[in-house]
Amino acid sequence: MLTIAPDIEVLARFGRALADPIRCQLLLALREAPAYPSDLADTLDISRTRLSNHLACLRDCGLVVTVPDGRRTRYELADERLGHALDDLRTAVIAVETDRTCVDAEGEGCC
User: Fold this and answer.
1) What confidence score (pLDDT) does residue 11 get?
2) Where would I find the H helices in the chain?
3) 34-53 as b/e, with b when 16 or more CB fall inside 10 Å?
4) Domain tally for the chain?
5) What Cα–Cα distance (Å) separates residue 101 from each residue in 14, 96, 98, 109?
6) Position 35 in a domain
7) Cross-strand bridge partners of residue 73
């Protein structure tokens, strides 16, 4: 059953997905066009096993969906607005102080 997540959960899921560079690359690739896992693995130059784990994470976070295509499965963004959100995030200006480290609530470095 598909449900709409509350705002905070949506942001947390998006944040978890963006916390890994490979998942960021996957989301940016899928922003351009839907793709098959084999093509994504080649594009990102990673093993299919590693790719599968990252795609599962993105699926579990609700950011990508699978679309059956004959005997193959294609991946695409769950909502076209995610592509716009990625564009906005990519072009956002952030204030980074070189003597500071991004720290999470537990005091561990997050960046």
Assistant:
1) 86
2) 7-18, 21-32, 37-44, 48-60, 80-91
3) bbebeebbeebebeeeebee
4) 1
5) 21, 9, 8, 6
6) yes
7) 68
Neighbour count for residue 23 (Cβ, 10 Å):
20
CATH code at position 21: 1.10.10.10
pTM of structure? 0.80
* 39: containing domain: 7-91
User: Taking all residues of the chain, what is their mean pLDDT, rounded to a whole number?
Assistant: 87
Residue 5: predicted pLDDT: 66
Q: Which amino acid is at 7?
A: D
C-alpha distances (whole Å) from 42 to each of 45, 47, 50 are: 5, 8, 12
Sequential DSSP letters for 3-30: -PPPHHHHHHHHHHHHTSHHHHHHHHHH
Q: At what angle do helices 21-32 and 7-18 cross, to 10 degrees?
A: 110
